[in-house]
Design goal:
The protein is an alpha/beta fold and 490 residues long. Helices cover 34% and strands 16% of the residues. The strands form three sheets. A seven-stranded mixed sheet has the order 4-10-9-8-7-5-6, sandwiched between helices. Strands 11, 12, 13, 15, 16 and 17 form a six-stranded antiparallel sheet that branches. It has a four-stranded mixed sheet with strand order 1-2-3-14. α4 crosses α9 and α7 packs parallel to α8. The longest helix has 22 residues. The protein is globular. The two termini are 42 Å apart.
Length: 490
């Protein structure tokens, strides 16, 4: 049976006719038509195989047989409104909570990362009746109205839009090109004090802080790894003000960072958020998500008198699929695999950094890695066009990668967790050749050795046995390459 109903041109024409023009797709000048996928590979209508370095949605691998079977079996047996009792829901809640600190014990099941973050905001605002929310520069938390308001990655694209007066933007804790860099004696405290200053200003105007929300590792913001200790200090300031700390794990949870199951745990065992949101990898492509919080926050939410109801959240099929994903992660040791393969990836990329002046910084944890391209390692001039050229050249060689960040110059690795060392060898080899070609065309040479470059070279580190994040030296939805971005002619 063919997986293709229409030829590619007809599919494109029908999409243009019936799908909203704001719904962008990858490589819009020559989009891919994917008809099937397996593991870390995707296949187009001609049978051409592509290595997928993008899909953190297909967390345990595209079309994993255990996940597919769990969903199909449950669908044959029962799928219904979540107001009926069923064991799969409570079993999944129990097993999911076992992966979290004891304090985080109450689950709300919903259907997408956006829905999870929207509910998290409701929980936070109801907790003590406060309204003000602090978010980070370049943050992206979802597509519904409440989340566009707290997503500078999106609302800064709107030239005529007014920022919500209850939303306050703190500097991104980026120690590579941010306000406080690696040569600062204590960047964690410096960035946390920026949040404290915002809180003080809000209080002077009569406002009250409901929440601070942050991706545990910023993804759309450019694979930013917060300095250790930052979250603890921010949480102390926010809680003192009567607010809660929301950790957005929609892109980075479920073992992707390797050393831990959740990315917020990279900050240390002494840090526990008040609310954690999950999405994307939770269902391996099935639309489900979750909000987990404390009993205190949940009780305050109930005290409003308004019943919370979600028709599909936690339905029997979603619960069965969620259970299967957890079981596959454990059975196949995908968290350990992410740690081992992720270290191999960063090590191979570090070798490329020693060869290529275009590579300014390599940072990440497990299978969440960013490569920031710059034209000048001292000035940190973003190599935006070069990053786009890398993406398109890789696509021509049947490798799918994306670029993101405020300058769209950060190559993002967030592949399915079954990604193999052989896949890394292939993609790194291709990047090596593409960068060499670009640097030759640009007349770039590696003028400075690593120990004599940018201040960022002082912070070389890896994801060590203690689970600390990796650093070498040092706008559009989900990094989608766009047709109107300039490409270099090589």
């Amino acid at each position: 049976m063919s997986a293709e109903i229409f030829d590619k041109k007809t599919t494109i024409d029908l999409r243009k006719k019936h799908v909203g023009p704001s719904c962008k797709i990858f490589f819009s000048d020559d989009p891919l038509k994917i008809v099937r996928a397996k593991g870390q590979y995707m296949y187009d209508e001609k049978g051409q195989r592509y290595l997928d370095c993008i899909n953190n949605v297909a967390h345990v691998g595209h079309c994993h047989s255990d996940v597919v079977q769990a969903g199909a079996q449950q669908m044959q047996l029962l799928n219904t409104n979540s107001r009926f009792l069923h064991d799969k829901l409570v079993l999944y809640a129990q097993r999911l909570q076992a992966k979290l600190p004891d304090k985080l014990s109450v689950c709300y099941f919903v259907n997408s990362g956006s829905e999870a973050n929207d509910l998290a905001l409701r929980l936070a605002k109801q907790f003590r009746g406060h309204k003000d929310v602090i978010t980070l520069e370049n943050a992206y938390h979802g597509h519904v109205t409440s989340l566009i308001d707290i997503s500078p990655y999106k609302f800064q694209q709107l030239s005529d839009a007014e920022q919500n007066p209850f939303v306050h933007v703190a500097p991104s804790p980026d120690v590579y090109r941010g306000k406080y860099r690696a040569n600062h004696p204590d960047p964690a405290s410096a960035y946390a004090n920026e949040v404290k200053d915002i809180i003080d200003k809000v209080h002077k105007k009569g406002g009250k802080i409901a929440a601070f929300i942050a991706e545990s590792l910023q993804s759309c913001g450019g694979q930013v790894i917060p300095p250790v200790g930052y979250f603890q200090q921010v949480a102390a300031h926010v809680r003192k003000a009567g607010g809660v700390f929301i950790a957005d794990e929609v892109q980075v949870g479920f073992g992707r960072v390797g050393t831990h199951f959740w990315a917020f745990q990279l900050q240390g065992e002494d840090f526990v958020p008040d609310i954690v949101t999950m999405g994307k990898p939770i269902g391996n492509g099935h639309p489900m998500s979750c909000v987990v919080t404390t009993k205190e926050v949940a009780q305050a939410f109930m005290s409003s008198g308004m019943e919370y109801f979600n028709t599909f959240g936690g339905n029997p099929v979603s619960s069965a699929i969620g259970l299967a994903v957890l079981e596959v992660i454990e059975k196949e040791d995908l968290q350990g695999h992410a740690l081992r393969v992720g270290r191999y990836l960063t090590n191979q990329l570090e070798k490329q950094r020693e060869k290529h002046p275009l590579i300014g910084d390599i940072r990440g944890c497990g299978l969440f890695v960013g490569v920031e391209l710059v034209r000048d390692r001292l000035k940190l001039t973003p190599a935006t066009a070069e990053a786009q050229e890398v993406i398109y050249k890789l696509k021509e060689q049947h490798i799918l990668l994306s670029a993101d960040g405020p300058h769209r110059n950060v190559l993002k690795f967030k592949p399915p967790m079954c990604f193999a060392k052989e896949d890394i060898d292939l993609v790194v080899e291709k990047i090596d050749h593409i960068l060499a070609e670009l640097e030759k065309a640009l007349g770039m040479k590696l003028a400075n050795k690593l120990n004599g470059e940018n201040e960022s070279s002082k912070r070389k580190q890896t994801t060590d046995e203690n689970g600390r994040p990796y650093h070498s030296g040092s706008i559009h939805e989900e990094g989608i390459p766009q047709k109107n971005h300039k490409r270099l002619k090589t």
